[in-house]
Design brief:
16 strands; alpha/beta; three-stranded mixed sheet; binds nicotinamide-adenine-dinucleotide; globular; about 325 residues; Rossmann fold
C-alpha cells in the first residue's frame, strides 16, 4: 500500500515516516495488514537527499497543499492511507490570516476530497491541536469532549478540520481519524513558527551549547508529549478498531503538564548525566507569544487515548534522553 504524509518533511512527518519504515506494514482499506511499498512525503520544500532512517520506499515531492490538482495527484491509488500534517502553525497563522485559511482550510479540503474520490474507505489521519481549546470558556482540565473555543486562527482551522473528518467519515467518504496533539517536544534543528517552539528550544539550544532566549516566564505551564509517543499515537490511532473510536473520530493524545522551570531543571539534569555543558537560558518575554500560550490548556486529560492504548511518556528526562540518542549522534 501507499502512504501519503503531507507536511512530510516536517518534524512529526519525518519521524512518522521512519516509524512506518521500521514497521513495514499498516492496515489498508482492505482491513488487512498490507506491506507499505511507497511512502510519499509531500511538503512545500523537501531536502535534496533522503534523510536518515528512510529507504528506497520513500519518495519526496515539493508543492503547495492549497493546489487542488497537485493534491489529487498525490492520492493516486486505492490501497492508500493519508496522514495530513501540512499546516501553517500557530504563530504563522496569527501573522497571516489569509495564508492560514488557504493552507489549512482549502488544503485540508483538497486532501479530504482526494481521499473521498478513491474507491473503498482509505484511512485519513488529521493532525489537530490543543489550540482548538482556549479562552474564558475553557475549564482548568481539558478533556476529549471539552467545548472547542479556539483563540487563534490556527486553532479555528484545526477545529473545522476535526468537524470535516467526523462528517466525511459519517458520510462513508473515508475512514477519518483526528489525532489531537498537545505540544510535542523535542523538535530537532531550527525553531519553527509555532508559538510553542520554545518548549523544544529550551531543551535543544542548551544541549547544543547555545543560548536559548525564552519568550515566556518560567512559571508558564504546558501539556507536553515526547515525539516518539506522538508518532506512536499516529500509528496507534491509524491501526485502532474504527468501531472502538465511534462517531467522534478525534482523540486527544496523552501529555504531561510541566512548567518551563521544570523543563530547565530537566535539561540541566539530563545534560549532567551525559556530560554535556549546557548553554545559557535568558528569559526575554515576547508579548505576542505570551498571549497565544496563555490561551492554551495546561492540564490535559486523555481518557479516550488511554482506552485505545495510546502511550504517554514515562517522564520528561526520558524524552530529553531520546532526543540526545536520536538527534545528537555526533556525541
Ligand atoms: N509539533 C507540535 O507541537 C504540534 C502540536 C499540535 C499540533 N501539531 C500539528 O501537527 C502537524 C505536524 O506538526 P510539526 O510539528 O511536524 O510541524 P512542522 O512545521 O515541522 O511541519 C508542518 C509542515 O507543513 C508544511 N507546509 C506548510 N505549508 C504548506 C503548504 N502550503 N504546502 C505543503 N506543505 C506545507 C511545512 O513546510 C512543514 O514542513 C501540523 O499539522 C501541526 O499543526 C503539532
Amino acid at each position: 500500500m501507499k502512504i501519503v504524509i503531507t507536511g512530510g518533511a516536517g518534524f512529526i512527518g519525518l519521524n512518522l515516516a521512519r516509524a512506518i519504515i521500521r514497521r513495514g506494514t499498516l492496515t489498508g482499506p482492505s482491513g488487512q495488514q498490507e506491506e507499505v511499498d511507497n511512502i510519499l512525503l509531500f511538503d512545500q520544500a523537501v531536502p535534496d537527499c533522503l534523510p536518515d532512517g528512510l529507504d528506497e520506499r520513500v519518495t519526496m515531492r515539493a508543492g503547495d497543499i492549497s493546489d487542488r490538482d497537485t493534491v489529487f495527484g498525490l492520492v493516486d491509488r486505492d490501497d492508500i492511507s493519508v496522514f495530513h500534517l501540512a499546516s501553517v502553525v500557530s504563530g504563522g497563522g496569527e501573522k497571516d490570516f489569509d495564508l492560514a485559511m488557504r493552507v489549512n482550510l482549502d488544503g485540508g479540503r483538497h486532501v479530504f476530497e482526494a481521499a473521498r474520490a478513491r474507491r473503498g474507505l482509505p484511512r485519513v489521519l488529521f493532525a489537530s491541536s490543543v489550540a482548538v481549546f482556549g479562552g474564558d470558556a475553557m475549564p482548568h482540565v481539558v478533556g476529549d469532549s471539552t467545548k472547542q473555543t479556539p483563540q487563534t486562527t490556527y486553532g479555528m482551522t484545526k477545529s473545522i478540520g476535526e468537524l470535516m473528518i467526523n462528517d466525511y467519515t459519517r458520510k462513508g467518504f473515508f475512514d477519518g481519524r483526528t489525532v489531537r496533539l498537545p505540544t510535542i517536544f523535542v523538535r530537532p534543528g531550527k525553531p519553527n513558527a509555532a508559538a510553542s517552539s520554545f518548549a523544544s528550544g529550551v531543551i535543544r539550544e542548551p544541549l547544543n551549547g547555545e543560548e536559548c532566549i525564552l519568550p515566556v516566564k518560567t512559571d508558564v505551564q504546558m501539556a507536553l508529549l515526547g515525539y516518539r509517543n506522538a508518532v506512536a499515537g499516529f500509528v496507534g490511532l491509524h491501526e485502532a478498531d474504527g468501531e472502538a473510536i465511534g462517531d467522534d473520530r478525534a482523540v486527544s493524545l496523552p501529555g504531561n503538564t510541566y512548567s518551563v522551570a521544570e523543563m530547565i531543571e530537566g535539561v540541566k539534569r539530563v545534560a549532567a548525566v551525559n556530560n554535556i555543558e549546557s548553554g545559557p537560558i535568558t528569559v526575554r518575554p515576547d508579548p505576542a507569544i505570551e498571549v497565544i500560550v496563555a490561551g492554551w490548556a495546561t492540564h490535559w486529560e486523555a481518557s479516550r487515548a488511554k482506552a485505545l492504548g495510546l502511550p504517554n511518556d514515562e517522564n520528561m528526562d526520558r524524552v530529553i534522553q531520546d532526543y540526545i540518542d536520536d538527534f545528537m549522534p555526533a556525541r
